[in-house]
Amino acid sequence: MAEIDYSKRSFNYYPTNAIVFSKCIDGRWTKPEVTGDFNFSLHCFAGIFHYAPSCFEGMKAYRGADGRVRLFRPDENAKRMQSSANYLDMPAPTMEMFIDMCVMCVQENWDYIPSYESGASLYLRPVLFGINPQLGIKSAKDVMFAVMSSAVGTYSGGKSLMPVTAVISRNYDRAATYGSGGYKLGANYAQSLHAYNLAHRMGYKELLFLDSATHSHIEEFGSSNFFAIKHGCYITPNSPSVLPSITNKSLRKVAEEFGLKVERRTIFIDELETFEEVNSCGTAVVITPISRIDDKVTLESGTITREYRYGEEAGPISTKLYNRIVGIQKGLEEDTYGWCMFVNDPK
Questions:
Q1: What is the reported pTM?
Q2: Residues 218 and 205: beta-carbon distance below 8 Å
Q3: Quick check: is 184 catalytic?
Q4: In whole angstroms, what is the distance from residue 335 CA to residue 328 CA?
Q5: What are phi and psi of 28, to 5 degrees?
Q6: Cα(242)–Cα(248) distance, rounded to whole angstroms?
Q7: Residue 14 burial by CB count (10 A; 0-12/13-18/19+): exposed, middle or buried?
Q8: What's the CATH class of domain 164-329?
Q9: Which architecture does CATH list for 6-152?
Q10: Tens digits of per-residue pLDDT, 292-343?
Q11: Looking at 31, 138, 159, 184, which residue is catalytic?
């Protein structure tokens, strides 16, 4: 395979060698298969095409400074997929099956894992979806579980920890108060696409969603969780309609390690002006600093924009948190939590 310059890649799809899949038919899983055919053949009445019985995960394989390849907390991804599948009332892979198939995918695409020096990684996308033909509105009884990969750079296509601007979503909700926001369902992301596109056309990189019941407090960004730093506290929303981010969970643990107080609570919009640092966090980015959040409020006299500014560079505490997480993922710092799983070279 010709040498690839991964350092210039953004977070987009790039071809790899193979995918791994298994099907659960009538309650029994087939033996995982490896294929170089990236096209699935599905019945036109498969539930995925009609009622969106689908959930997915996002994780990365990192080549460390020591040359070894690591997966970061794959057990947490397995548990979250099981939670999403349970919400959809459809079969889910066991933790062992989930992790084994992720390892298989990494090994089958070993030559596509970027070098440590590139700063890139091999992104894994485990996905679970309904495949049995159906017409009535029912949960899928037969499913396919597949793990695919793509070698990616940073989410923004630029350097890490590059601050971006965001706007508050006043007219669109990501998830209902008693809905599916706390699960990683494909339908949740479809719900946010139109609002996201509008924000992008306005020049914003991120979109900050509020609670759907009152539009008075912060939920999460369109792509990832919200957290802020204030007076030595790591503050993040606590809401059943916010996706439980594995990155956020890890950052909270590291924050405590650094002596920060961690608060998971309701965050009202007015508190934005009191924060010292604001970030989005997730697998694709780890941390993306937010330089400015705009709130466009419509009054009888017209629309006014309230600006909340946080600086044009990543804050010092956020940078320290980022370096600790990435240091663990890439073998630069001791993994005192046992979060990383090593994947062996298949050759």
A1: 0.94
A2: no
A3: yes
A4: 5
A5: -125, 130
A6: 11
A7: middle
A8: alpha beta
A9: 2-Layer Sandwich (3.30)
A10: 999 987 766 668 899 999 999 999 999 999 999 999 999 999 999 999 999 9
A11: 184
